[in-house]
Recover the amino acids of this structure.
């Protein structure tokens, strides 16, 4: 049996899993691993803060669908990664996070840079491990990758004590992984599929409600077939955007708190809601008892805990979205029903939907030369054909990006949906660009969020990984300010950014290009200039936007989704 | 509504903390919890009593099942089952009450497992209701200390 060092075994495992790029930050506890990494075929991207490493690996995972890998040292290295691990957990992103740990004899002694990271991350990982025996190292890493990418994906943390990494271990050939206690259900129950399909045939006002599960399971095509063959309108959650083409006439855009008027009305009037890979989050449902009050609910999800958690499902289907959608499409194809005729019966419903859109389109008020943020996003969409990779920070910038960029394809929107982590966009953009060096990657940011991980500009420079950072600068923490305007008598408590850096000078300090724009008439030229400049280097666009612009429609927290505040 | 769940899990460090963390993190209730190794020493059996309506207990069961180290979750209270709890009770036993305490223990089929001039330690097993009953009876006489195991339970063997 071949014996190699623990760190060589770790690298072997990474290569075996197809990992070519990892993101990390060194420290005492992982110095052996870094030494081995230096001569290996795995590329390492040195970030400037551990949160950035995990977000970058997360961005990499979201655009590729592969497992993202981050490597952090013990103690503060590991704790700095926690926010980013929780971000990936809430959005079900497949990741493996390797953390260094003090040598096993010191564990529990309050040693230098020791922290119980397995204890800390227990509630925000899909699973985690402390490897305390050398012979467990390789099997644990293999299990970690298996758990991260199968079932409902998620981050898995493996804590690696320094002595285990330095010791000699046996490296056995990989066997198929069988875990008695972990067997996700991929195949749907065909009886439930039949029930669901029969309901769909009967429905007069069906709506497809699509979440991140469709993206994660790569089932956009199957979903599109279902929607188009039966003429069913589609609404998407933030995580589901791109799961169905945003420019298709059947797309109603996003639903929920900042969803389109059309989407929220359609759900409220629907007689059949087909939830695919979505989890009835509070930002989607608003007041639960008023959500889809007339609809029967079909709920497809690979995670049984998501079903009937917030809203009781009439027809639950535990399955991978792709397998379930294939089964449904097959059922319809062999049902002998004339699908065109059934689709045609939805015409009055689609007419009602189009009426809603005509009356209350996704829009904003023009203010002449004062730049409207929505206009900037519309221009980004137009000039990139809806095909760029858009990462976002969190807040108004994120919602405007979701509302006004028409995502044509899945894995184009990279955003922290569940946890809502400010500072996510820039490192995630770097991760995405690393995965697809030829893609146009744009981080839609606010002047608040961008400062939370701005240090990663150095990473983008060092690795020649140019992205566009499009700051919608209003000198406010805009989303909180909007709530204060609407619900707290305009008392702007701690939301005014009284001091903000000169972003153009800042860009230059980092070796990037900075362009300021404060006139509507110059927005298009500025974006074009950025799309040209980003071929060589990172670009920061500082758009000075209408300061007190709000995100609308808006459903106030706890209200029914039909009680929207409109533009 | 009270539910008794039997959870089969990996006998590894940190597993219990995954279970309790799940309950505290999601605001579920634990009335009692008891855990020990099974016949197969790589597995533990955890008996947990919780309360909640049907939807909550369904969610608890699913969430438990989602933990990687959990192998099987059974809501024992859905079938015929036997449950037992044990208590050790240190009760005052002075000249005037010694005989009375012994009579009570006898009625509840308990045992005196430690004797001192002023107290007995009583061992009693039974359902939670029975344990509660003996406590209620002994309380006026003077209970100094109680330790209870929490419920353990097992499904009855089907008769057919």
């Amino acid at each position: 049996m071949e014996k190699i060092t623990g760190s060589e075994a770790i690298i072997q495992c990474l290569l075996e899993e197809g990992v070519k790029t990892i993101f990390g930050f060194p420290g005492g506890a992982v110095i052996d691993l870094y030494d081995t990494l230096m001569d290996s075929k795995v590329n390492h991207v040195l970030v400037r803060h551990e949160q950035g490493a995990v977000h970058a690996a997360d961005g990499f995972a979201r655009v590729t669908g592969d497992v993202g890998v981050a490597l952090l040292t013990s103690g503060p290295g590991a704790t700095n990664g926690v926010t980013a691990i929780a971000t990936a957990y809430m959005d079900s992103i497949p990741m493996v996070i390797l953390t260094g740990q003090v040598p096993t004899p010191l564990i529990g002694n309050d040693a230098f840079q020791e922290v119980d990271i397995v204890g800390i991350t227990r509630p925000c990982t899909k699973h985690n491990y402390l490897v305390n025996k050398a012979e467990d190292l390789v099997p644990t890493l293999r299990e970690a990758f298996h758990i991260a990418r199968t079932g409902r994906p998620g981050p898995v943390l493996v804590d690696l004590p320094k002595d285990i990494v330095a010791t000699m271990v046996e490296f056995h050939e990989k066997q198929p992984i069988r875990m008695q206690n972990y067997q996700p259900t991929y195949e749907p129950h065909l009886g439930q599929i039949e029930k669901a399909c029969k309901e769909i045939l009967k429905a007069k006002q069906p709506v497809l409600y699509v979440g991140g599960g469709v993206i994660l399971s790569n089932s956009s095509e199957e979903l599109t077939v279902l929607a188009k063959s039966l003429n069913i309108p589609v609404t998407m959650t933030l995580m589901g955007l791109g799961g169905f083409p945003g420019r298709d006439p059947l797309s109603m855009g996003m639903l929920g708190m900042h969803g389109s008027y059309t989407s929220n009305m359609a759900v409220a009037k629907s007689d059949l809601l087909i939830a695919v890979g979505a989890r009835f989050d509070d930002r989607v449902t608003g007041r639960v008892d008023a959500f889809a009050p007339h609809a029967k609910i079909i709920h497809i999800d690979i995670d049984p805990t998501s079903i009937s958690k917030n809203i009781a499902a009439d027809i639950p289907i535990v399955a991978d979205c792709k397998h379930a959608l294939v089964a449904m499409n097959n059922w319809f194809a062999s049902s002998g029903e004339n699908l065109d005729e059934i689709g045609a019966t939805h015409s009055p419903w689609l007419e009602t939907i189009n009426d809603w859109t005509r009356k209350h389109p996704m829009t904003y008020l023009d203010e002449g030369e004062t730049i409207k943020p929505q206009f900037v996003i519309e221009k980004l969409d137009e000039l990139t054909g809806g095909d760029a990779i858009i990462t976002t920070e969190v807040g108004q910038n994120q919602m405007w990006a979701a509302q006004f960029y028409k995502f044509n394809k899945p894995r184009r929107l990279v955003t922290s949906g569940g946890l809502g982590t400010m500072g996510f966009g820039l490192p995630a953009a770097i991760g995405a660009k690393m995965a697809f060096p030829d893609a146009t990657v744009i981080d839609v940011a606010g002047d608040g969020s961008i400062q939370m991980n701005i240090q990663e500009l150095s990473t983008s420079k060092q690795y020649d990984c140019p992205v566009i950072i499009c700051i919608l600068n209003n000198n406010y923490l805009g989303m909180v300010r909007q709530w204060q305007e609407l619900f707290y008598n305009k008392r702007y408590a701690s939301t005014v950014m009284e001091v903000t850096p000169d972003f153009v000078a800042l860009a230059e300090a980092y070796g990037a290009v900075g362009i300021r724009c404060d006139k509507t008439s110059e927005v298009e030229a500025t974006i074009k200039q950025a799309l040209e400049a980003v071929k060589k280097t990172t670009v920061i666009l500082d758009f000075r936007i209408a300061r007190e612009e709000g995100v609308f429609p808006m459903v106030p927290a706890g209200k029914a989704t039909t009680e929207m505040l409109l533009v | 509504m009270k539910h008794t769940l039997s959870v089969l899990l990996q006998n590894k460090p940190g597993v219990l903390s995954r279970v309790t963390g799940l309950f505290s993190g999601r605001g579920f209730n634990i009335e009692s919890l008891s855990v020990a190794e099974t016949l197969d020493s790589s597995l533990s059996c955890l008996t947990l009593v919780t309360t909640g309506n049907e939807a909550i207990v369904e969610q608890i069961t699913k969430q438990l099942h989602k933990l990687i180290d959990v192998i099987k979750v059974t809501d024992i209270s859905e079938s015929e089952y036997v449950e037992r709890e044990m208590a050790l009770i240190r009760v005052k036993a002075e000249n005037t009450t010694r005989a009375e305490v012994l009579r009570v223990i006898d009625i509840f089929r308990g045992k005196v497992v430690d004797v001192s001039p002023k107290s007995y330690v009583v061992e009693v097993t039974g359902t939670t209701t029975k344990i509660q009953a003996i406590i209620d009876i002994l309380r006026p006489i003077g209970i100094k200390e109680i330790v209870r195991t929490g419920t353990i339970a097992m499904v009855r063997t089907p008769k057919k």
